[in-house]
Amino acid sequence: MQTWKTLKRRPILKYSKYLTVEEHDVELPDGQRIKDWPWLVTPDFINVVIVDEQGLFVLFRQVKYAVEGTSLAPVGGYIEPGEDPLLAAKREVLEETGYEAPNWVSLGQYAVDGNRGAGTAYAYLATGAKQVAQPDADDLEEQEFLLMSRDDVRTALLTGEFKVIPWSNVLALALLQLQTTENRT
């Protein structure tokens, strides 16, 4: 299979550092051209599933503007321009929870919207974590700090308590990674 080619980009709206809307001219592999393909530019971000030294998952219960009610959530945040995604993940974990972890596994990087862009999500699993400082988060949302067992996290995932798709994705990947690692030993 061949990829599409971007022939031209035009900004339509530059709202802030968090959102730019572009219009692309693209060429399909068969030569067909589309002159008005909408494209969203948003910052890349990280999500981290943290497991502490006792095997408990470090999570939050919080509100988000686009989510009705509360949702369970892992650590997450934007990657600063020029920042390495793993370093951003470690920074966000320390800021939001006060935890550090000796063991890190990349769970992959994923396009947020396969047709319209909207940034890239970088997913990580951090294990053996311990709290070394007080959280120093600048999040706008009110949030409740939680420690949850793996069984409780699995149940919460299956019952839709993680209401944002990147959060569900990173939790499912982390559970699979942990299970795969344990099956090898």
UniProtKB/TrEMBL annotation:
Can you cite a GO biological process for this protein?
ribose phosphate metabolic process
Keywords, ordered alphabetically: Hydrolase
Return the InterPro entries for the record.
Answer: NUDIX_hydrolase-like_dom_sf, NUDIX_hydrolase_CS, NUDIX_hydrolase_dom
Nudix hydrolase domain sequence ranges? 40-170
A Pfam family that the UniProt record links to this protein: NUDIX
Record's GO cellular component terms: cytosol
Q: Quote the SUPFAM superfamilies the UniProt record gives.
A: Nudix (SSF55811)
Which cofactor is essential here?
Answer: Mg(2+)
Give the molecular function GO annotations. hydrolase activity
Name of the protein = NUDIX hydrolase
Protein's organism: Phototrophicus methaneseepsis
